[in-house]
Specification:
single chain; about 45% helix; about 70 residues; 1 helix; mainly alpha
Length: about 70
């Protein structure tokens, strides 16, 4: 029995270099950066508004820092 294997190389994402892909990547990076900034601002505002001592397992009942 003979096997006929054909290996097709997949192009790497860095190898794709067209204007539309560049625009999409740039937009995706911008959206990700905005989402991270918003999450950080929310976290910091929550911590600033918190008047209790932070425990090891939960921070002021906000859900931040809780495991599981």
């Amino acid at each position: 029995m003979t096997r006929n294997n054909t290996v097709v190389p997949l192009c790497q994402s860095e190898a794709i270099d067209d204007p539309l892909t560049a625009i999409l990547r740039s937009g995706a990076r911008r959206l990700l950066a905005q989402a991270i900034e918003a999450e950080a601002e929310t976290f910091l505002a929550t911590m600033k508004a918190c008047n209790c001592r932070m425990g090891a397992s939960a921070w002021c009942g906000t859900g931040w820092g809780r495991s599981g």
